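Here's what a typical entry looks like (Lectin, mannose-binding 2-like b):
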Amino acid sequence: MATIVMKLNGAIYTTVMSLPYSPANKIRVSALLVLILAFSSSSSGENTYDDNTYEFLKREYSLSKPYQGLGSSSSSHWEFMGNTMIMPEHIRLTPDLQSRQGAVWSRNPCYIRDWELQVQFKIHGEGKKNLNGDGLAIWLTKERMQNGMRSSILQIFKLLILCDMTMMGFFWSLCFPQGQVFGNTNFFTGLGVFVDTYPNDDKQHERTFPFISAMVGNGSVAYDHDHDGRFTDLGGCTAHVRNVENDAFLLIRYMKNRLTVMTDIEGKQEWKDCLDIPGVRLPQGYYFGVSSATGDLSDNHDLISFKLYELTVERSPEEDQQEITLPSVDYRVDSNGNSNNKIIHSLRFSVSYFTEKYNVCILQMFSLHSSCGGRRKEHHHHFISLHCFRRCAGCSGCGYYLSI
């Protein structure tokens, strides 16, 4: 399209230069230039990467002031839930009060294959450092307009099939301490990018908060809120987004199965690298959303704008035929910054809980893969008693992953 516009502009320039000067011709040329500008802005994209990649703003998936596309009517492209408040200058997902949650969700499933998302937001409150929470999340998921309780109830019914009723209280406290993920359901299917402002894991020293991370879920992998998602995220970066004078900006790009996250916290209009992961596969037809939650600690979480751009990318015939039906990722960066191949998104559930009193690592049925001290073992454990755990001496800190 851009090539067509350039050729059209050249032809018009040649025609204009050949016209004799007169007031009538001056009016005609002015009118023609106005039409050309309108055509260029509506039909052509902006080339921001290379000669073969252009971006187009998709208004049906975007939100900006005065937020006319957000509401409960059937004609609205977006709807909101929880404690969300629509204000003239921003959308307040949660106020600086305890135990609040809010979200906005697109009504339209997104069938754009390659895209770039730019989110403008602000997190601020009266609490001092590390006395505030919890953060916000940006979503592209199969589920929409849900909260954490629905997910926990469904998982409990699954556990009823596997475990005796006498163990249900034990598993409820261990498997579902997080309840929800920044105001959205856990065990989500799709992509979540988290702006986490509070360190729930007080033993964690390798990360400085606020911390931005990303996770790809397949509907059966849990985000462990108590450990800030360290066992399932794809990596991330520290970003001091709270109580800063200017607005914060987050860029999320998904192009050719590569996920890139960048930030602009200082308001200098310069993007800084945060996360870059190849081999990320996201199906089409999922929903965009933004959610937030507060607990015992709180903050104002304000969404200012949400702009989605479609990226036009040249693809090979093999890439065009690729069909993705389930979210997955080939690589995961561990807490030490190392990349591990294909270890997470064939998982059913991740467990890292160790109980010193009983000296056990909790296991479940099916096939479990563990990595302790660099040694990989496979445990085939079958349910034969009331106990849904197995005694495992000396395995504190081992990560157990349940595969289907």
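The longest strand covers residues 300-312.

More examples are in the samples folder.
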